[in-house]
Specification:
Layout lengths: L25 H10 L14 H22 L1 H4 L4 H25 L5 H17 L8 H16 L8 H22 L8 H27 L4 H6 L1 H29 L3 H29 L15 E6 L4 E7 L4 E9 L25 E4 L2 E4 L1 E3 L2 E10 L5 E6 L2 E6 L17 H13 L16 H16 L5 E4 L4 H17 L3 E2 L7 E4 L3 H15 L9 E3 L6 H4 L5 E5 L6 H13 L7 H11 L9 E7 L26 E9 L21
Parallel strand pairs: 10-11, 10-12, 12-13
Antiparallel strand pairs: 1-2, 2-3, 3-7, 4-5, 4-8, 6-7, 8-9, 14-15, 15-16
Length: 670
């Protein structure tokens, strides 16, 4: 029932058809959906314009009626005057919608458009002739065109057989219902045969729609009744089933009716709603192509990544670790502005009324989204009990329910909902982008990566070679930070570089904490330096602090990296993140998870120092980033800033690697 962009269209490209699945990166979203169950479901704002959707609805529904009135001629014989009028009006509506679509496209009619018009007009024309059975031929052509629009190109859509069968069944049900509603008596056996056809078509259509709903989603009751796609999918099941049930009831009741007048009353009361149900069935299937595809079901222990619509544009919602107990919820996107302290678990039940701004509701509790240092968007820490099936995001009086499933296992990675939770979630999102396992594994803050240890040792050697008087270390209690601090101390002792408890005027500051503590440290150090000489030897960040939330806290920082942020592979990760989860910030942990899943190689033989600083001219977002000229590219590694390599490679003692940037032997100094 979805129409991929590769199908043959009835009007020129850029016009009405195909409406296609919603979303500005459908191929990418489909690829991720096929490999990882925690994919985004794009919001209604990403769909086709309302006018195009309305034209598509009118056009394809009218085509189904035209096709059906021609196909039933095999069983129904010559049509009555009322049936010919209905077929003619439906053809007129379809032609008008096609012409309007061509006009909106701004191009001339194509051969497919002309073929559509000719086949559509031929059906009522032949119904009015001496041999109405000939209308079956153009009706078959109209049905084929309808199948291409509702089901897509054969072999392209994975559910083509189900969708094609539904299109044919819908046309037959519509044709049978129109014939019966315009035939008030059963003067011979033909109406009875058409009624059987209608019952069979309605039954087949309901079964096909039910199978598609079961295997293609929506996968939760929350999404079935809470999303436009879910409600439309439900109608595709209920409406044809109603056609079959009503016509079956007519068959049973008319047989039991003693008087003919009573039988006619039964027909009058049953056939009209049956005809309406048949038309609604096709209309609902038509709408599915203009609505966002459903997201896979939430799975316990797997990070959830969804899109929600609160009337302000596409918003990205992420939840982890999806276990009973504390769960970290992130909301990002255009227009999401939050203030307040770093998110903490509410002490009590709090107020039951929705607070101002964005909030997440669980049970009778509303938890506002607040800012977290070093991480973009809004954050809320909520307690999800066993058996929780949904959370509700609220803003400005609007509410959107999002299905969740936390299971019963309370085991969750250490740090998943604490200060290092945003980085842990970023790594999970990186795996999701690459179609990998969305299970929330060990958080990056639980261990020091050998590449980061090598980069930190190189940084200390570079400081010693520059004659730095000493350095101070800013860390936290995480295992990675403690291990990194030990590496820095050991390297400083080997280089004869004093390690001080706090940075002096000319000392360097090496920050090895997580995002949240690092953002505060960098900001406070920069402010202190404005009045008192503090850490004039430079602020050096650990590699995992390559994220805009930390870099933007100072007019200048340095960090050792074994790759260039502007190189092709890291930029491909950034563009993928911007397309699938707009508003989310790239991170080294996310890049590593994405690259490990995709198998992309992006690192240099040895790390080098890079300088990060704001730029006076705002960096603009390109088309891939989805921004506009004059605005910082929020999808960049450093929105509103630049990250530039400033020295040669930081090689280990005894190595003579070649500098990748110049081809000269690499040295220890920056």
């Amino acid at each position: 029932m979805m129409s991929p962009s590769s199908i043959v269209t009835l009007v020129p490209a850029g016009g009405l058809l195909p409406a296609g699945p919603a979303g500005d990166a459908p191929a990418l979203l489909r690829a991720v959906a096929g490999a990882a169950p925690a994919v985004l479901a794009r919001g209604p704002q990403d769909g086709v314009p309302f006018a195009d959707t309305a034209l598509r609805l009118v056009l394809l529904t009218a085509l189904a009626v035209v096709a059906g009135t021609g196909l039933v001629r095999v069983l129904a014989g010559a049509p009555g005057r009322a049936e010919r009028v209905v077929a003619g009006v439906a053809a007129l509506v379809a032609v008008s919608a096609a012409v309007a679509a061509v006009t909106r496209s701004g191009a001339g009619p194509t051969g497919w458009t002309l073929f559509l018009l000719a086949a559509t007009v031929a059906v009522p024309a032949l119904l009015a002739g001496s041999r109405p059975v000939l209308a079956v031929v153009p009706a078959l052509a109209v049905t084929a065109l309808l199948v291409l629009q509702l089901a897509g190109t054969p072999g392209v859509a994975p559910w083509f057989a189900l969708d094609a069968g539904y299109a044919v069944a819908g046309s037959l049900a519509a044709g049978a219902a129109v014939h019966l509603v315009t035939t008030r008596t059963d003067e011979d056996a033909r109406p009875a045969r058409v009624r059987v056809l209608g019952i069979a078509a309605g039954t087949v259509g309901a079964v096909l729609a039910a199978v598609r709903l079961a295997v293609a989603g929506p996968f939760s009751l929350t999404d079935v009744h809470g999303t436009g796609f879910g409600r439309a999918a439900l109608v595709t099941v209920v409406a044809p089933a109603a056609v079959a049930a009503l016509l079956l009831a007519e068959s049973v009741l008319t047989r039991r009716a003693v008087h003919r007048v009573r039988a006619d009353e039964v027909r009058d009361r049953v056939r009209t709603p049956a005809a309406l149900a048949a038309v609604v069935a096709v209309g609902a299937a038509t709408l599915l192509a203009a609505l966002p595809a459903p997201a896979p079901a939430a799975v316990p222990g797997q990070a959830l990544l969804r899109s929600v619509d609160l009337g302000t544009g596409p918003l990205t919602l992420a939840v982890a670790p999806m276990r009973p107990g504390p769960n970290l919820v992130q909301l990002t996107g255009a227009g999401v502005t939050v203030t307040g302290p770093d998110a903490t678990m509410p002490a009590g039940h709090g107020e039951t009324g929705a607070p101002a701004g964005y909030a997440v509701r669980t049970g009778d509790r509303d938890v506002p989204f607040t800012a977290r240092s070093g991480a973009p968007g809004g954050w809320a820490l909520v307690d999800l009990p066993e058996g929780a099936t949904s959370i509700t995001v609220t803003a400005g009086g609007l509410a959107r329910a999002v299905p969740v499933d936390v299971g019963t296992d309370r085991t969750a990675p250490a740090g998943a909902s604490g200060a290092d939770g945003p980085e842990c979630l970023s790594a999970a999102v990186g795996r999701i982008l690459a179609g990998g396992d969305p299970v929330l594994g060990p958080c990056p803050s639980e261990g020091l990566d050998p590449a980061d240890a090598r980069a930190l040792r190189g940084t200390v050697r570079a400081l010693a070679s520059q004659g730095a008087p000493g350095l101070a270390i800013a860390g936290d209690v995480s295992p990675r930070s403690r291990a990194a601090a030990d590496v820095v101390r050991t390297a400083a002792a080997a280089a004869g570089l004093p390690v001080r408890p706090a940075p002096g005027p000319d000392d360097a500051l090496v920050v090895v904490s997580g995002w949240q503590h690092a953002a505060t440290t960098v900001r406070d150090t920069a402010r202190a330096a404005q009045t008192t000489p503090t850490a004039l030897g430079g602020t050096y960040l650990a590699p995992w602090l390559l994220t805009g939330g930390v870099l933007g806290q100072s007019p200048g920082t340095l960090l050792p990296l074994d790759f260039g942020p502007q190189e092709q592979v890291p930029q491909r990760y950034v563009r993928t993140l911007a397309a699938v989860a707009p508003g989310s910030a790239p991170s080294l942990s996310g890049l590593r998870a994405w690259a490990a899943t995709t198998g992309e190689a992006y690192t240099d033989p040895a790390p080098a120092l890079y300088g990060a600083a704001p730029v006076s001219v705002p960096m603009t977002a390109d088309d891939d980033g989805g921004g506009h000229h004059g605005a910082p590219n929020e999808a960049a590694w450093f929105p509103g800033g630049a990250i530039v390599r400033i020295g040669s490679a930081l090689t280990e003692p005894g190595r003579a690697d070649t500098d990748p940037g110049t081809g000269a032997p690499a040295g220890p100094t920056p």
